[in-house]
Write a structure and sequence with these properties.
Number of domains: 2
Structural class: alpha/beta
Strand order of the largest sheet: 8-7-6-9-10-11-12
Distance between the termini: 13 Å
Oligomer: single chain
Helix content: 25-40%
CATH superfamily of the largest domain: NAD(P)-binding Rossmann-like Domain
Low-confidence stretches: none
Largest sheet: 7 strands, parallel
Order of helices and strands: EHEHEHEHEHHEHEHEHEHEHEEH
CATH architecture of the largest domain: 3-Layer(aba) Sandwich
Strand content: 15-25%
Length: 306
């Protein structure tokens, strides 16, 4: 049986599925040096976001055939190093779409209805009904940057809220836009016209800091930026300046350039709603990711054996 090393926790159903066709070792919290030793005789490595699969780790895996991420992004894996070794890299982008889309609306509603402030006020023994007037999502324009699975899931839910939709993607899906009643526009137009802007793109060299000082300057002073994709897609220092100056009204963030965001200027901005990268952290999404990866892993490993 092939040997599979799992270095981040995955849902028990996915673990059981992998154990049906492989010898499995679960070892979490490894340092790079420890991982280099562990991976030497493994056929496959399964990770989530915590494990960093560096070139050194990949080159130490003499028998390594597959690296599988039980999640969406691959920015914690040196994909180029894996390709050079002929190692298959898998992920499960299908799994968290609903979970992340629902978090986008949780963040928007929390900001628009001032829920964190209301909760803190109540716990402090205050009844500040007049101070906590909020705004409705209905009738507002939502700009969606990136219309893959998650972006589309957000758009579908936005229609139920009665929001207007503007879309941006380097590869527009006109069939989807027509079906949902949305419009693809240039990024500058989306930023200038949207009341809420939500980002759903992978972290690539061309998307790093795609939202920076110039882009933030295009947004309405009443606009709110939402990022549940990857932290480095947004220039955090530029965003902090825009928040402090009132250039935009606020930001809702689940991801950060460095996680945890120790010392980030965003932590000092009060016009924010911040969560600790929990977009995919639902029981349903984690189970789906683990089962999808188990299925894909079985296909690759059994295919190579046949």
């Amino acid at each position: 049986m092939p040997k599979v090393l799992i270095t981040d926790p995955i849902h028990e159903d996915g673990l059981r599925a992998i154990q049906e066709f492989a010898e499995v070792e679960v070892s979490t919290g490894l340092t790079e040096d420890e991982l280099v030793q562990k991976v030497k005789d493994c056929d496959a490595l399964v990770v989530r976001s915590a494990t960093k699969v560096t070139r050194r780790v990949i080159e130490s895996g003499a028998n390594l055939k597959v690296i599988a991420r039980a999640g969406v992004g691959l920015d914690n894996i040196d994909v180029e190093a894996a390709k050079k070794r002929g190692i298959v890299v898998l992920n499960a982008p299908e799994a968290p779409a609903i979970a992340v889309a629902e978090l986008v609306f949780a963040l928007m509603l929390a900001f628009a209805r001032r829920i964190p402030q209301a909760d803190a006020s109540m716990r402090a023994g205050r009844w500040e009904k007049k101070k906590l007037q909020g705004a409705e999502l209905h009738g507002k324009t939502l700009g969606i940057i990136g219309t893959g699975r998650i972006g589309q899931a957000v758009a579908e839910r936005a229609k139920a809220f009665g929001m207007k939709l503007l879309l941006f993607d380097i590869k527009p899906n006109q069939e989807f836009a027509s079906r949902i009643g949305a419009e693809y526009v240039e990024l500058k137009h989306l930023l200038a016209e949207s009341d809420f802007v939500t980002i759903h793109v992978p972290l690539l060299p061309e998307t790093k800091h795609m939202i920076g000082e110039k882009e933030l300057a295009l947004m309405k002073p009443t606009a709110v930026l939402i990022n549940t994709s990857r932290g480095a897609v947004v220039d955090e220092r530029a965003l902090a300046r825009a928040l402090r100056s009132g250039q935009i009204a606020g930001a809702c963030l689940d991801v950060y350039e460095r996680e945890p965001p120790v010392g980030s200027p965003l932590l000092e901005c009060t016009n924010t709603v911040l969560t600790p990268h929990i977009g995919a952290s639902t029981v349903e999404a984690q189970r789906a990711a683990a089962l999808i990866i188990a299925s894909k892993l079985r296909g690759v490993l059994q295919g190579e054996k046949s």
